Amino acid sequence: MKKRIGIFISGGGSNMRALVEDMDATHPAEPVVVVSNNPHAGGITWAQDAGLATVVVEHQPFGRDRIAFEAAITEALLPHNLDLICLAGFMRVLTAGFVTPWRDRMLNIHPSLLPKYRGLHTHARVLEAGDREHGCTVHLVTPELDDGPILGQARVPVEDGDTPDTLADRVLVQEHRLYPAVLRRFAAGERTPLML
In angstroms, rounded to a whole number, what is the distance separating the alpha carbons of residues 57 and 72? Predict the structure, then answer.
């Protein structure tokens, strides 16, 4: 029986699209629902056009009450009976109260070679540090930000004249290769890190 996947996005959802497009008949998982905190996320429209269920839970009405926001997400997920969650550009930090029940069942992709450069603005930080290599990491989500066990990494060289935007573009190409490959393996029970 295929694993049932929920994918969380906040924007255009290019990583979500890469995951969904990879989930063919041979895949051990299937996309069940796309969740966003942004009703204007381009990825929501794409998911609806692809015939996927979508859920939007806006965070603004909850103010600073992240617990109530996450409770609303949890409630919205119940009918979908998910096995795994893939965070794919979901730009909200989730609390331990949400993450802990999903221990070892929630994946994230982050645009750096973790453990380096947790958090935001990774491409600019790589350039500021003078690093010659950059990349992306798929990891299990834990209550600590960008700190879970690594399931896969892909590397790209930093080139002379790179800007944060040019570097981001090259890393994104690798994200679209890495995340689907890691999910396919993970859903089949493979936990050995994949290095591209």
Answer: 7
Residue 176 in tokens: 């679209």
pLDDT tens sequence across 186-195 = 999 999 999 9
**170: which DSSP letter?**
H
Give the total residue count for the chain. Answer: 196
CA distance 53 to 31: 9
Token pair recorded at residue 71: 């409770």
Give the whole-number percent of the chain exceeding pLDDT 90.
Answer: 99
Q: Which residues contact 47 (CB under 8 A, 6 or more apart)?
A: 13, 16, 20, 34, 54
Summarised one tens digit per residue, pLDDT across range 98-152 is: 999 999 999 999 999 999 999 999 999 999 999 999 999 999 999 999 999 999 9
Q: Where are the domains of the chain?
A: 3-109+138-152+178-188
**Fold exhibited by the domain 3-109+138-152+178-188:** Rossmann fold (3.40.50)
Largest Cα–Cα distance in the chain? Answer: 50
Distance (Å, rounded) from C-alpha 92 to C-alpha 66? 9
For every residue of 141-176, DSSP letters joined together read --SSTT-SPEEEEEEEEPPTT--HHHHHHHHHHHHH
Name the residues annotated as catalytic: 110
